[in-house]
Amino acid sequence: MVRRIINEACGERERAERRAAIRSGRIGASLTTGLHARAITASRRSPEPPCPCARSRSRIGDRRMRPERGKDGTMGSRVTAQQVADLAGVSRSAVSRCFGDGQVSEETRRRIMAASQTLGYRPNAIARSLTGQNTGLIALLLAEIDNPYIDLVLKKLLLAIAEADKRALVIPETRQHDLTGSTMHALDYQADAIVVLGGTVSDHVVEQLRGLDTPVFQFGRQGGGLGGVACDNEMGGRMGGRFLVQSGRRRIAYITKAAATDANRRRRAGFAAALEAAGLPVLEGVAQDNGFEGGYQAATRLFSAPEPPDALFCFNDIMALGALQAAATFRLRVPEDVAILGFDDIPMAGWPAFGLSTVRPNLDLQIGKLMAMLLEIYEGAPARRTVDLVQPDLVVRRTAA
Amino acid sequence: MVRRIINEACGERERAERRAAIRSGRIGASLTTGLHARAITASRRSPEPPCPCARSRSRIGDRRMRPERGKDGTMGSRVTAQQVADLAGVSRSAVSRCFGDGQVSEETRRRIMAASQTLGYRPNAIARSLTGQNTGLIALLLAEIDNPYIDLVLKKLLLAIAEADKRALVIPETRQHDLTGSTMHALDYQADAIVVLGGTVSDHVVEQLRGLDTPVFQFGRQGGGLGGVACDNEMGGRMGGRFLVQSGRRRIAYITKAAATDANRRRRAGFAAALEAAGLPVLEGVAQDNGFEGGYQAATRLFSAPEPPDALFCFNDIMALGALQAAATFRLRVPEDVAILGFDDIPMAGWPAFGLSTVRPNLDLQIGKLMAMLLEIYEGAPARRTVDLVQPDLVVRRTAA
DNA sequence: CTGAAAGCGCTTACAG
DNA sequence: CTGAAAGCGCTTACAG
To answer: I need a labelling partner for A40 at 20 to 30 A (CA). Which of A80, A200, B3, B157 fits?
Structure first.
């Protein structure tokens, strides 16, 4: 055992005296006394001879080279709970309880709120995170950064997270099979959960993420033992295939990039099943990429064949738009000569210029389910391990009817 | 003065003894001794009779209901610097220095790195933020959430921020004239800087942000006394106008939504100046919105007039695409009958389907300049107060030549 | 180069 | 309901 002598108690005593004074009405809790309170605090912090902490304080105060108080009287976020406590004549604990979910008397709450108002106090979320139950941060791992569908997902998710009063730490992950150092750093912020957006990330990365002690969810991706939500891609493929078959098409092609992402495999499987049920083969349309050019070129190749297809089902809308352009180049009438069907229902698909028929994932429902899973962990529930599949809708516009 | 007796020193002594043992070679710094070290730590934390902190610890340990050690041997991020220090036989300070920019001897660094490796230690960024110079967080205030150009900006900025080893806290701001509570909360995370993306946010919001003690920058917006970067919109407007004039157009319209955003005002001013220099008037094309439909309808109205324009300069590419569609509806040849010019050069503009001529902001240069400003504040420089204008380029494709 | 101590701004049992 | 104390996981002068 060792005894240590701590000399900050004088400040404590001053504070207690002041509290008594405020309560007895000898001093009012006004801005003026607030300044007074600050003077007391300061004297506590740097007794003569000036103690080391004074040096340290000023350095930190300096670090952003801004005054403690804004020119317009609003305070910067440097006001601390102690300052509020001093001005209100209560303890720091009371202030904490008042801003947290603790019990505070009406009178105390009133004083604290008034003081906070005056000083412009807002609790430091970082300090809160260090000691509290959670950080309020949700890390969004953006795997497919140039997928316009993911753009949509990201925006809706950002809105939903803000709505739930959480914060989004957005991390662009440029590697597919490993985590970048930048991502690792972002993960050091103790996010309450991680959401992997998009289907291109490898199972290995998912495995790495599972090694962390943070719940991980996936959006638009299945497998890897992670919970999450996804569009029922197989169902979507089946819906598309069935629709084309029923509208009398016989030479039906599926256009996609060769790479076997999970979403692609499933859409294709459902599609193939639908054609097979009708005794039809799947014509192959291989694209260089999953973008406009890819769709354009794959369709061009198909249209140049001796027996061109009478229907195209494209892995996504952008490719379908490329295919649409190819059809125009070949002077094919859409949908009379060739039906074109996309997937995703990006905003552009609905533009009158295109009138693209497509399979629309129920994005809002997916986001809703994901948010529910996310919020469950704040209730102390263990992270889900299953992927919730959400059924898409067929949107019939002009390009396939 | 008050004397306080602190009983944690026993743990300290044990630690010191152990350090000596490790150094003298009596114990090796292996995984096994690592577990041993943890046992010591544990005994320090809960001496018999079990002290209160044991309770508190277990609660916090429980809070995520995960074991201290993953099934595959990887550690969760719950390993602390103290554990590494114990295993390496050094002080917590040494570990901190090793992961920070402090001075550490080669041997010490080796031991610490080995121990960290074994335990899977990564410094807790939140704790670091609380005590360190900065948080490494950059708040991105996303004002125009459905502007596809801002999508592009956001992605590039996310990449640049990750590249600079900073983290992006992305905040969707749905209100134009005030900050939402959600945004206020996000700002409580002590971001090192705030970047306002997009031009639609009001000066009042900018004023509120300036009240915080965090440097604020703006992207694609001028005024309000905030530093930042923006496309030289006036110059862009002038380039567009001059180009149309020089290609022989005489009845030139400017299409935009009536609302007077800053970018709109400037583009229009430059454009009008170019036409005026040629003695030409600006034909007005008023749109409902700044999207595809808006462009389509405004163009439709212009084409229906007794003397339709022979050139359209649109506020942005999406509107220009709408106008292009309107031209097709009117069976107008582009560019022979009517030239169409956009602004932004979104990826779609370059698709062969459109071949949209447009004014291209130099996005990479803008991002580069913004990042430079952002990084300056980490050097202790005061936030810049001026907006750097970056000159755009004219991209001539098929719709105006 | 190194360790002990103090501190960052909060929260949370604990004991009134 | 309230305050004093301990603690969250780090960093950083300070004094060797």
So the answer is: B3
Residues in chain B with CB shorter than 8 Å from the CB of A137 are: 189
Count CB-CB contacts under 10 A for residue A269.
Answer: 14
Contact A125 B190 (CB under 8 A): yes
Closest chain B residue to the Cα of A57, Cα to Cα: B131
Q: Domains of chain A, with CATH numbers?
A: 9-123 (no CATH), 137-227 (3.40.50.2300), 233-362 (3.40.50.2300)
A5-33 exposure pattern, b = at least 16 Cβ within 10 A, e = fewer: eeeeeebeeebeebbeebeeeebebeeeb
Q: Which residues, in sequence order, are CB contacts of B307 under 8 Å at separation 6+?
A: B251
Residue B32: predicted pLDDT: 38
Give the pLDDT mean for B345-349.
91
Separation between the CA of B199 and the C1’ of C6 (whole angstroms) = 46
pLDDT in tens, A94-136: 999 999 888 999 999 999 999 999 999 999 999 999 987 899 9
**Nearest CA of chain A to the CA of B350: how many Å?**
10
Residue of A nearest to B7 (CA): A1
Q: Name the nucleotide nearest A109; use CA and C1'.
A: D1
pLDDT of residue A2: 32
- DSSP characters over A111-161: HHHHHHHHHT----HHHHHHHSS---EEEEEE--TT-HHHHHHHHHHHHHH
Report the share of chain A in percent with pLDDT over 90.
63
Task: Say if CB A359 and CB A345 are below 8 A apart.
Answer: yes
Comparing A366 with B47, the larger pLDDT belongs to: A366
Work out the number of other CB atoms within 10 angstroms of the CB of residue A131: 11
Provide the positions of strand D that have an atom within 7 A of a protein CB: 1-14
List pLDDT tens digits, range B4-26. Answer: 333 344 455 566 666 666 666 55
Q: From B74, which residue of chain A is nearest by alpha-carbon distance? A: A211
- HEC readout, B234-260: HHHHHHHHHHHHHCCCCCEEEEEECCC
**In 3-state terms, what secondary structure has residue B215?**
coil
Residues 114-133 of B with CB under 7 A from strand C: 127, 130-131
Q: Touching check for B300 and chain A: CB below 8 Å?
A: no
B188 and A325 within 8 Å at the Cβ level: the answer is no
Residue contact B188–A125, C-beta within 8 A: yes
| Most confident stretch, A7-21, A318-332, B214-228 | A318-332
Range with the poorest average pLDDT among A4-8, B108-112, B189-193: A4-8
* Neighboring chain B residues of A213 at a CB cutoff of 8 Å: 64, 66, 70, 76-78
What is the average pLDDT across A193-220?
88
Segment A194-220 mean pLDDT:
88
Residue in A18, A123, A14, A109 with CA at minimum distance from that of residue A79: A123
Q: Is the pLDDT of residue A33 over 70?
A: no
Output the CA–CA distances (angstroms, integers) from residue B395 to B153, B243, B342, B362, in the order listed: 19, 11, 10, 11
User: First vs last Cα of chain B: how many Å apart?
Assistant: 85
Residue A363 (CA) to nucleotide D8 (C1'), in angstroms, measures 39
Return the residue in B182, B289, B325, B340 with the most chain A beta carbons within 10 A, the one to mutate for interface testing: B182
pLDDT reading at B299 higher than 60:
yes
